[in-house]
Known about the structure:
Elements (H helix, E strand, L loop, with lengths): L3 H16 L3 H18 L2 H22 L7 H23 L13 H9 L3 H9 L8 H30 L8 H24 L1
InterPro entries: LeuE-type
Subcellular location: Cell membrane
GO molecular function: amino acid transmembrane transporter activity
Amino acid sequence: MLSISSTALFVLGTVIVLIMPGPTNTLLAAAGLRDGVMRSARLTGAELAGYVVSITVWGHFLSQAAHSLTWLPTLVRIASSIFIAYLAIKMWCTAVLPPTSGQQAIGLRTLFVATLFNPKAILFAGTIFPAVAFASLPAYFEAMAIFATLLIPIGLVWVMFGAALGSGRLMWISPAHLLRGASIVLGTFSLSLAWVAFH
Length: 199
């Protein structure tokens, strides 16, 4: 079981990292903008699933085999960079399409894969999750329950932010400009990942 002090640090670190802009949050906001809160809220389930898989794999990997496979983090960063660049291009190209065009830019699979490759998962697994979470099954389930309890409302806030932009409540920002801006954020993030991977 997790101690009170480790739980407090875990909760604080998780909130800070989850609330930061990044590829998953950008996609959630863009989905809220395009499809509204009700249709996009389910994407938080895909986000949670992607993080659970990625954090679990990275957590067990880092605690077992990080010393012998030093090249793997670089490979993961490169794969993440390529996928996020693809998302950026796709979002840029669909920014001018009306929401009723029938082309859904962001679905469950897209968000799941983007979250699966999100480098935040490595940060969670390597530093924010207590080490005991990957050594004890009860501690693992406790940490994941806390993580899910924090992730769902934060993800919904990003969806609601995008929906508010789409409804005109934030009239000073054009939906097309937001999507193109989100595309630039994703593209910049992709380039920064590539830079870190090759340097």
